[in-house]
Amino acid sequence: MVSTKADISPKIPPILHGGLPYLGHALEFHRDPVGVLQRGQAQFGEIFSFLLAGSQITVLIGPKGNEAFFRAPDSQFSAKEAYRFTIPIFGQGIAYDTTPEIMSEQLGFIFPALREERLQAYAQLMAEEVHTYLENWGQSGEVDLLTALNELTIFIASRCLIGQEFRQNLSNEFAHLYHDLEGGINLLAFFQPYLPLPSFQRRDRARVRMVQLISEIIANRRRNGIVGEDFLQTLMDASYSDGSALTDDNITGLLITLLFAGQHTSAVLAAWTGILLLQHSQFLPPILEEQHAVLGEVAAGKPFTLDRLKQLVVLERAIKEAERLRPPLIMLMRKILRDFEYNGYYVPAGGLAMVAPAVSHRLAECFRDPDRYDPDRFAPDRAEERKSAYTMIGFGGGRHRCIGQSFAYEQIKVIWSVLLQNFDLELVSQSYEPNYSTFVIGPKQPCLIRYQRK
Ligand code: HEM
């Protein structure tokens, strides 16, 4: 039999049924993105497409699809084109608004702040911030866990990454500006970041004011010959490979980039770590025993060091299980600039490619009983995540892999160590569901916990 052209042509990925004209699956996706993606995976497996407000999105699921996504070169799968919504926040000429070469120079300015010797110094600073914050809690009460962790991680990030002076200058105004910038990140911004919406106008005003505030600190340092031991100073002294210095706008943009990449994501992962642990309290005793063994009696507690934190392996498994079940970034995107072929499928240039940690992390072929909370799956005798380099993708993979994972794990370990050492904690609500209306997916608020000082 003679084979026709159709027989030998690569197939196009199957398309998810049931979308509206033009809008496609936008409404359903807005309400329950993970549900849409899981439906696609259940129906079609590792590759399928769907329509979202005029854009065709091709989803790759599972270790092999994840690997293909992360290994595609920037010239084929562009992060820069997919993340244009960050430009009004990070600023022009920063991160995704530059060439890949300049972006990697800019990330190069950030690396020193996240090196092992800096992480050593941060351990104690983080613990100080947590202790100071918790002094306000009193003997017993209820708090919104996510709000508390958001505040705390802003303090930690600004103290450790930007410097003591910035931390001291953290005012209510800064918190409001930060909040307005965050309001500029939503599904709409992904496609139309410059619509004349009030939230986008607030975002733009907030950034202008943020540059003013940071420029004042920079000018004050320069005027008075103050030299800080911090990231701000590193940026003030840095220059690009062509010899040009960073402008105040550039410096502010990189500070905002760091805060945005690392603060909310860490707060959310810390919140899920605690919620899941308190929901499955049978996993608490070994964590408390480990705390005691590594850090000693609370009253005469040994200081936090990076080395001791690394020994908290049982706590680390609980964080990893939260990363698996509730990844803060449920999907990662790229713009497809050149046609792409995967496993006999052909995806033309022009659409978007997506991987979905929230779906890939729950595949039965990767994780035993995948919907069950079971931190011991990461114990050395099971090590389920080691089956492939791309089984766990909560921090991405390949050349755009997160540079702040160690910092994030470090601070979450410090936060939960201090909390568990000093408080008895219990959940207040029956259930804690994900809030899909924000870009980083935390628990819906109010998200209350009850505490009693030990
Ligand atoms: C729980 C906390 C965090 C999570 C879940 C997280 C997750 C991620 C993910 C998934 C990516 C890859 C994005 C993509 O491929 O499209 C990424 C990239 C990045 N992360 Fe994180 N992150 C966290 C904390 C941090 C921290 C603390 C910092 C810095 C202090 C940071 C800095 C960055 C930067 C600069 C990139 C861009 C790297 C590049 O494109 O080359 N992240 N992060």
The averaged pLDDT comes out at 91
Specify the CATH homologous superfamily. Answer: Cytochrome P450
- Amount of beta strand: 5-15%
Largest sheet: 5 strands, mixed
Give the gist of this structure.
This protein is α+β, with helices and mostly antiparallel strands and 454 residues long. The protein is built from 20 helices and ten strands. The chain has a single domain (5-453), classed as Cytochrome p450.
Report what the structure shows.
The N and C termini lie far apart (79 Å). It is globular and about 70 Å long. The chain has 454 residues and is of the alpha+beta class. Strand 6 and strand 7 form a beta hairpin. It has helices spanning 5-8, 26-31, 33-44, 63-71, 79-82, 87-90, 100-110, 116-135, 145-162, 164-168, 172-182, 187-191, 198-224, 231-237, 248-279, 284-295, 306-311, 313-325, 357-360, 405-422; strands at 47-52, 55-60, 77-78, 140-144, 332-336, 340-342, 345-347, 352-355, 423-427, 448-453. The protein has one domain (5-453): Cytochrome P450 (Cytochrome p450), CATH 1.10.630.10. The longest helix has 32 residues, at 248-279.
Which SSEs are present, and which pair or pack?
Layout: H1 5-8, H2 26-31, H3 33-44, E1 47-52, E2 55-60, H4 63-71, E3 77-78, H5 79-82, H6 87-90, H7 100-110, H8 116-135, E4 140-144, H9 145-162, H10 164-168, H11 172-182, H12 187-191, H13 198-224, H14 231-237, H15 248-279, H16 284-295, H17 306-311, H18 313-325, E5 332-336, E6 340-342, E7 345-347, E8 352-355, H19 357-360, H20 405-422, E9 423-427, E10 448-453
Parallel strand pairs: 2-8
Antiparallel strand pairs: 1-2, 3-5, 4-10, 5-8, 6-7, 9-10
Helix pairs in contact: 8-9, 8-20, 9-15, 11-13, 13-15, 15-18, 15-20
The structure holds protoporphyrin IX containing FE.
